[in-house]
Description:
The structure is a single chain. The longest helix is centred in the middle third of the chain and has 36 residues, at 245-280. This protein has a two-stranded parallel ribbon. 76% of the residues lie in helices and 1% in strands. It has a single domain, classed as Growth Hormone, Chain: A, CATH 1.20.1250.20. By secondary structure, it is an all-alpha fold. The protein has helices spanning 20-43, 45-51, 58-74, 76-89, 92-110, 116-119, 122-150, 158-187, 189-196, 198-216, 222-229, 237-242, 245-280, 285-299, 301-313, 315-339, 346-364, 367-374, 380-396, 399-410, 416-420, 428-444, and strands at residues 6-7, 459-461. The chain is built from 22 helices and 2 strands.
Amino acid sequence: xxxxxxxxxxxxxxxxxxxxxxxxxxxxxxxxxxxxxxxxxxxxxxxxxxxxxxxxxxxxxxxxxxxxxxxxxxxxxxxxxxxxxxxxxxxxxxxxxxxxxxxxxxxxxxxxxxxxxxxxxxxxxxxxxxxxxxxxxxxxxxxxxxxxxxxxxxxxxxxxxxxxxxxxxxxxxxxxxxxxxxxxxxxxxxxxxxxxxxxxxxxxxxxxxxxxxxxxxxxxxxxxxxxxxxxxxxxxxxxxxxxxxxxxxxxxxxxxxxxxxxxxxxxxxxxxxxxxxxxxxxxxxxxxxxxxxxxxxxxxxxxxxxxxxxxxxxxxxxxxxxxxxxxxxxxxxxxxxxxxxxxxxxxxxxxxxxxxxxxxxxxxxxxxxxxxxxxxxxxxxxxxxxxxxxxxxxxxxxxxxxxxxxxxxxxxxxxxxxxxxxxxxxxxxxxxxxxxxxxxxxxxxxxxxxxxxxxxxxxxxxxxx
Length: 465
């Protein structure tokens, strides 16, 4: 570190006037709402298969519903590129204000859509269009929020402080389940299927307005503001990110050595677990929601635990061993879920889902800090967002669709053993991806926890140091 390095704090420098907990709250609340918006559809996919797609073949309609859910994930890397460029060129705050607005509008409009029975093929067409807008917005949101918090954090607490952002995906999912569950119980199943499903989508409009108000009060991140003042910010983030062989190597390592495995563990441990309980195990939806909700409540604090541990023992060890544990235990866990579903044993089902959520916290808690540390500040937003959203959008987002398709295909297999175990064959996909990530992450990526991101702008610390 140069001798003229300065300390940024609440009292001095570009960070003047900010409080780290205000920054975390404002960033996390907006990101949580975006995840809530995005996962409403996933939680209601079983209903949407009858509302927005032709009737006749239930399996085909369900797959179409999951494919539409996946469409939002398909475009997330493109949102990462578009809004990542804005974040590196204009600023972190501006980019994630735009993404939050787009997400809120598109989600509210889903709640106003006509069904297939009313307008025919126009219904799924409009639904897909809004899902694409949601995906684009989420593609820009996460990188902005994670970068914004990281660039307000001291080096030795970055894993812990950014792990608050990591809780938002699970909290958003939990909020979606809670709102759906309360609405459905309050109005009854028939009314919910008819029109009540719209209520959770319309509620998001209120949440987004509140979050936009909070975010408007934020200032630009002190690290980025100092970078721009020094003339070190990128004038062409896309060119700087994607024409460098060295940077492409980092992007690919981040994808296959971290985000791909993290993504399949995340979506298997929460979404596929819920789907498996309802469709394979035939657990009543109320019971399935309660099991998953309790598991999320128990598991969510571990995002902070593993984020803090990653500041001490390293990011890669925790993430990689989370992938390995998931790959080695998924089959017995899901066999146990099937066994304890008939008759229903809620304590054991909750335990088995909670174990999966703990795996989620291991792979997801430290990943924001890891990605921030992997890339230089001037192209951080663009570069970290791309592997994150390819991993989570493509590898993770399509997990329910791929797993369901594998189960359907193997159910008619000529091999007696495969046919008899077809309900578990969907697990092959997340197991293989998690193992790939374990080996790439453990043996091809160095540890990043000691990276001094503030050295780029000649500073040593920020508030909270």
